[in-house]
Specification:
- There is one protein chain.
- The chain has about 250 residues and is of the alpha/beta class.
- The chain has a single domain, classed as Alpha-Beta Barrel (TIM Barrel), CATH 3.20.20.
- It is about 40% helix and about 15% strand.
- The chain is built from 11 helices and 8 strands.
- The chain has an 8-stranded parallel beta barrel, surrounded by 5 helices.
- About 45% of the residues are buried.
- The chain binds 2-phosphoglycolic acid.
- 2-phosphoglycolic acid (PGA) binds next to strand 8.
- 2-phosphoglycolic acid binds next to strand 8.
Amino acid sequence: MSKRQSLVAANWKMNSNLASMKPLVDAIKAGLVDNNDVDVAICAPSLYLPELEQRLAGTGIAVGAQNVSEHEAGAFTGEISTTMLNDFNCHFVIAGHSERRSMYAENDELVADKFAQIQSAAMVPILCVGELLSEREAGLTEEVVARQLDAVLSKSGVAAFSQAVIAYEPVWAIGTGKTASKEQAQEVHEFIRQRLAQQDSTIAAGIRILYGGSVKADNAKELFSMTDVDGGLIGGASLKANDFLAICRAAR
Ligand code: PGA
């Protein structure tokens, strides 16, 4: 099988506003005219999805959300449902980002519930997994990543991964300027793919596994050159059009 088409997804986190997102999105659009080689998505704060949907219409750049409720509807004050995201042509939804896991107490089961809810609404989850620095230093990287993956596998089954993206994001590399080396990234990406292959080799071969954690214009190319790295989930560098565009080009 030829290498999977790369995906570069921006994760704006809780940054930008209407005034700053407009020129950012327009510059990204302009820089990606005639791009057919790389899939690109922007995961914005939910409040801005209507604006994003309008601005991205007809460009081939996909709309994404950063989080969603695990419930379908009901008395969940302050939450946003998959039905609501569907109103704005949202294609991807991030599930289990480490900031949600650590600051909003999202455990493996909750992340698995969100993953299932996203798929039941016909959207594509970007499932984030990754170890803390202390876990890596204790030699627990594979154990942690396997546990995070297995929670979703046991709830949704391996077939669900034919309509999903995985992002390996070592927590110690997120927003710290410390990137995993290309070898470190490849090692874990290969482990993830092999774990899925134990259950279904076709799905394992087809799924895109993104790397995330301080991806920059100057390290993207070497990370993306690795066999099992199929693009990136980009935080800080996605807030500057030129940096983000350079990362998209590096994924070609
Ligand atoms: P970063 O964030 O690129 O700023 O490290 C990546 C992420 O958290 O998705």
